[in-house]
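cache lookup: miss for this entity combination. No prior model stored, computing from scratch. Input as submitted by user K.M.:
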Amino acid sequence: MLRYIGKRIIEMIPILFIVTVLVFLFTHLIPGDPARLVAGKDATLEEVNNVRAQMGLDQPIWKQYFTYMGSLFQGDLGTSLKTGLPVSAMFIDRFMPSIYLTLFSMGWALVIGLLIGTISAVFKNKWPDYLGMVTAVSGISLPGFWLGLILIQIFSVQLGWLPTGGSEGWKSYVLPSITLGAGIMSMLARFTRSSLLDTLKADFIRTGRAKGLKESVIIPKHALRNSLISVVTIAGLQFGFLLGGSVVVETVFSFPGMGRLLIDSISFRDYPVIQAELLLFSVEFILVNLVVDILYSLLNPKIRYVS
Amino acid sequence: MKKAKIWQAVFLALVCSILIVGCSSKESGGNTGKSSKSKDMVIAVNENFISMDPHNTGDTNSNSVQSAMLEGLLGFDRDGKIINVLATDYSVSDDALEYTFKLRQDVKFHDGTPFNAEAVKVNIERIMNDEGLRLNSRGFNQIAKVEILDDFQIKVVLKAPYSSMLTRFVSAKMISPKMIKENSAEIAKKPVGTGPFKFVEWVQGDHLTVERNDEYWEKGDRVKKITYKPVPENGSRVAMLKTGEASVIYPLPQQNINELKNNKDVVIDKVPSTIARYVSINTMKKPFNDLRVRQALNYAVSKDAFIKVVNSGFGLPLDSAIPSKTLYYSKQELYKQDIDKAKELLKEAGYPDGFKAEIWGNTNSDTMKGMQFIQQQLKEIGVDVEIKSMEEGTLSDEIYGAQTPKDAKVQMWYVSWSSYASDVTNATRPLFHSDSFPPDGANTAYYKNADVDKWMNTADATGDENEKAELYKNVQSTIYKDAPWIFLGVDEILAGKRTNVEGVNIDPTGGIVVKDAHFK
């Protein structure tokens, strides 16, 4: 197992290398000129060209790429074109809040989603099922910004229990993680339900029941565990996306996360920040996938990885 | 079956608890939030702060925060007139080449370094020599030398006249010379100045806090701490004002004004801005090269309707080439909507049935609304406008990619210009001088008038206020008649404040002045 994990981590290197090339090309080839944006709209051509030269953007693109890779290998993510601050300094205050928000959202979404999904499957076509699925459908259909603003209206403006935003203390994480987790909770509930229903039809469940096993043993131990593979896949994917930050939720709750930084950087063509963020997301995604693969083998002993 | 009942009970309990939380919210309508008497003031703005280096800043919100901590030799009053701040007096030579300042003698930087002529010299030379700084290309590269006359007198000599130089001295805020020499990498993160507040911390994307400088040279009643927060979502910013989490919000979204009007805890500030809204018309392209066509377009559009429809009623008609808060502004006779006159002019120009045209703009929803408004107004006189909205970066490439007027594809561009405070040069030269055709400036009307060019050049080279006023009067009346734009409106800036807040003002550029900020 450890060898397998080691091998997977080594395999990351060529993937990340390809990512750097693609990201570099994408960011530099989209229309829009950061030098023009930095210099201001009343700048003369000469001023714009000066700015461009200072940023090193007048060099041929392959040369820029090698300069970039050179500093990347020394652990330098570069300097933001927009703020003049090191990219790492811009990440520091945003990275951990993004991670916490992801964990909180994912945490409650998993617990509640699995619970609703399981109950719905057990009571298929009875009222708990209908109620559970109505909840799930609403969770998916409510647009994040709307849900967020409604929550602010109720819990911050009317009741005054929770802050409208920010990232200070656990209180400010409550509303954003509810908003962010709602859709995922619903998705997980629906996947759990359908997957569990499939499993419950399987022969080994019938055998178990015939053997006289109680439902309270069959459902969690035999059926649910076998249904979790697809749920874990979905949860892993969602987790990866969440790490990339959520622009909508971060905007509504003025939350200092990675998503808004990315959008701000794209509209300003802040190449070093875009590149660093995309690279970071790629690493995160690959790591999440690795964890998902390991979870597979824990859930289903038939899945074993050999290096 | 028994198990099933337990499961059902659990589920029911879950649903009930959700419902209870949901319902109980309706019962209480009280406004709680943080106590208004707390000593910290929170100011929520719409965008992230970019940099705290005053010599390298172009955005309003960063400027606002900086102005709490840093001061320049000169400043603006609420009408955009230039006033003394760290200078006690200044004079400009007749040839507009020498600027002499007398300095305040009772000022210290936050790190204890005394403020004097040497400190000013270090600051100005930093900007002159570092080409990476924004202000460098804005006039400071025109400086030949800085001379210290005595401890508190300094003379700045230019290579050539530069008419915006006084406003540049407003933006060149003074940083501690010790910091510039020993620790200049930190200026963009935590600047040390002379202002009424001192830097405390900046958590990227979340907040920036400053605290009162008890040794500030001007005594006054000031709050202990101010925290600035970027809150981009309009609804959230308004919610913060309602709960009292924020004492001041800027900007206040126009669509929220009605819900706040009757809130007795909130007051609304309305300030005319220096933001002009217009459609630039490519005067070198057919049919726009005909003055009558351009005037017809102006007569076709109702300014009042524009302000009502597009700006939710907050704005003033643009009745000159520059907004009224600009220095040397002179009011022109407005193009009042007159469909018959517009049709008549089109007929004279040879387009009795109108023509087809294209209007460009970014993808912002307000811009889209504005372009649709123009489209609908021009339809009245038979001009069929096609809307082309483009993402900002692409749009910028399309406009500035044209190397000569002939290459330019732009016909009409729906856009706005926010000039640097009340600076008349910045409000005219980049937009109307023939040296400013893209990619050398923002004259996207490709407007060229030899007289206007000459007047602007002369005005730039003189230190005589009266002569300047006269020249800019001619500039404005000529441009307005030549109609290189469809003149639309000037924005009014809105800000919301809790009623217990005093001494916080919004200036015409959208800057937030907090020098005397305190709670009642």
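stored under new cache key. Residues 2-27 of chain B form the longest helix (26 residues).
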